[in-house]
Amino acid sequence: MYQYDSYDQAMVDARVEEFRDQARRRLAGEMTEDQFKPLRLMNGLYLQLHAYMLRIAVPYGTLSPRQLRKLAHIARTYDKGYGHFTTRTNIQFNWIKLEDAADILAELATVEMHAIQTSGNCIRNISSDQYAGVAADEITDPRPWAELLRQWSSFHPEFTYLPRKFKICVIASPNDRAAMRTHDIGLELVERDGRVGARVYAGGGLGRTPMVSPLIRDFVEEEELVSYLEACLRVYNRYGRRDNKFKARIKILVHELGVEEYRRQVEEEFLHMRTLGIQPPTEELDRIRAFFAPPVYETGLSEEVDRSDPDFALWLDRNVVAHKQPGYAIANISLKPVGGIPGDATADQIDLVADLGERYSLDQVRVTHAQNLVLPFVRKADLYALWQELDAAGLGTANIDMASDIIACPGLDYCSLANARSIPVAQKIAQRFASKEAEIGELKIKISGCINACGHHHAGHIGILGVDRKGTENYQLSLGGSGAEDCSVGTITGPGFTEDGVVDAIERATNLYLTQREEGERFLDTYRRIGMAPFKEAIYG
Amino acid sequence: MKLLTGNDLATGDVIWWTGEGWSRHIGDAVDAGDEGEEILAREEAARRVNASYIIDATQTEDGPLPAHIKDRIRASGPTVRTDLAINTAIPIVKA
């Protein structure tokens, strides 16, 4: 994986000391909260419901064992012994003290991590496919591109105060595992005439106004990508709605201008950008690419896996996917134990995953936008031993993409923006459906505790939005969303439900699916074929 | 009744105005009456509280109960981690 050069390290170290001084001045009364708040947010430090929360960037979801051990250490030393993996593939600590924050950032800097640009109206952490570099269906490894964009967007002076936050995703497979088209800009690497370039989508997003991003350009050459993105951002920065926070995302600009006009303006700006010579030299991408070179794989490994243990066989079927290299597999670690808190991991579990990453996965671990972890380089012969260790630590749940593998934001249990709790609803759904999910098959349920949609509810096969109805939690249900290559925004079923009522409603919807499905159909497929009406009838009677 | 709440500047802990200072326990909170704005201005300036605000609450047999669920959860702690709770006796959902 990428390693900081002296410039990267100096930049992060300098920011730590700058923040240390800012925090000192705030604690000494030399700054008001109004003055300090934007500074702490630039360093990922929020004030949430119960305490300060620190959001730490995990660039394109890639972590080393050394970094994981540092995160476990932070959880133990400065927090309450656990962390929460997010839908942006970041990690959050919920119980941080301001007086410790600079020390934590200094500790993170020693393992090439930081919390810069995890808040504010800037380009946020670049996300990617959790199977990057090992997926059988990818045309190239998207991570060198993601890293190039990380470097380009870090402290970019022109894009530090955008109209609103900005999220970029890079994938290189026709199968979208990263919700690429729900991003402000989504890049799909494609091959044309033997050359790799980017298909560029712009103006996607969830939140208050969910939109699937339209295609802006079918192909951008590798050596022109940064210039093209500069043009996309520059048009947005110039014309994005700064007058209204709720209309300030690029999706609103693209929608209001129209795709053709936005594209025309970007192309015009792109012509100008081409003359400026701002594109990094191709040698830089080559330098970055060297950090992501494939490992030296063992050859002649066995393809056989003993499936005689039924619990292990179930985990194999649900959590293990094909690797591009014979003899190897990709192992998903579910952070969704039935009845647990989606995305939470204890310090001991994080340490264990670090150990397993070292022993079984060539020192690499990934974070998924679905709040799970991945070991991308596991020899098939090691899968049983790996599963036994995971299972013993409560990390062996076999449920990837099943009903109990629920994406849930922290909701009103932690978040100051939330209107309703998400986690208890996720727990109840998981408990209700765990015994039925083999029959139901793939079902992606996603829950947000407010309209900001951190839980991606619009993109759930079944989506749940918690709202505040006269001081009481209420839950709206939507059906038919998807964050995958068949990306779509779900449709609200009708009036909302109580916490228990929404679980019952989902059961009625899945019961209908089971009676209506045709051979090979997922819940989403059946919904798309028969439409909302029968589901509505089943749900509301 | 009117309660005053906010977060401790250094630790971020949720705190409640007791009439003489700040407590982590809502059971120690007192009605600030009409003096809330004045008290908060003074306490914020002295950095004894951060992000403070006034809430409505009712006095019950078990102590003050915030009107809004968000403040009941702030007073209680995360409902999904009762091991970390300050006060599990607070009813989060009103009967």
> Strands of the biggest beta sheet of chain B: in what spatial order?
3-2-1-4-5
- Major beta sheet summary of chain A: 5 strands, antiparallel
Poorly predicted spans of chain B: none
The number of distinct helices of chain B, counting runs of at least 4 residues, comes to 2
CATH class of the largest domain in chain A: Alpha Beta
Radius of gyration of chain B: 13 Å
Helix content of chain B: 10-25%
Percent of sequence in beta strands of chain A:
15-25%
What does this structure look like?
The complex is a heterodimer of chains A (about 550) and B (about 100). Chain A is built from 17 helices and 20 strands. Chain A is globular and about 60 Å long. Chain A starts with 5 loop residues before the first helix and ends with a helix. In chain A, strands 1-2-5-4-13 form a five-stranded antiparallel beta sheet. In chain A, strands 3-14-15-12-11 form a five-stranded antiparallel beta sheet. By secondary structure, chain A is α+β, with helices and mostly antiparallel strands. Chain B is an alpha+beta fold. Chain B has one domain (about 1-85). Chain B is about 20% helix and about 30% strand. Chain B is built from two helices and five strands, in the order E-E-E-H-E-E-H. The interface of A and B includes residues 52, 95 and 97 of A.
What are the SSEs and their pairings?
The complex is a heterodimer of chains A (541) and B (95).
Chain A: H1 6-27, H2 33-41, E1 45-47, E2 52-56, E3 62-63, H3 65-78, E4 82-85, E5 91-96, H4 98-109, E6 127-128, H5 143-153, E7 168-171, E8 185-192, E9 195-202, E10 215-221, H6 225-239, H7 250-257, H8 259-274, H9 282-291, H10 310-319, E11 320-322, E12 328-333, E13 344-346, H11 347-360, E14 365-367, E15 373-379, H12 383-392, E16 407-408, H13 423-433, H14 437-440, E17 445-448, E18 462-469, E19 472-479, E20 491-492, H15 499-516, H16 523-530, H17 532-540
Parallel strand pairs in A: 6-7, 7-8, 16-17, 17-18
Antiparallel strand pairs in A: 1-2, 2-5, 3-14, 4-5, 4-13, 8-9, 9-10, 11-12, 12-15, 14-15, 18-19, 19-20
Chain B: E1 2-7, E2 14-17, E3 22-23, H1 36-45, E4 50-60, E5 63-66, H2 69-76
Antiparallel strand pairs in B: 1-2, 1-4, 2-3, 4-5
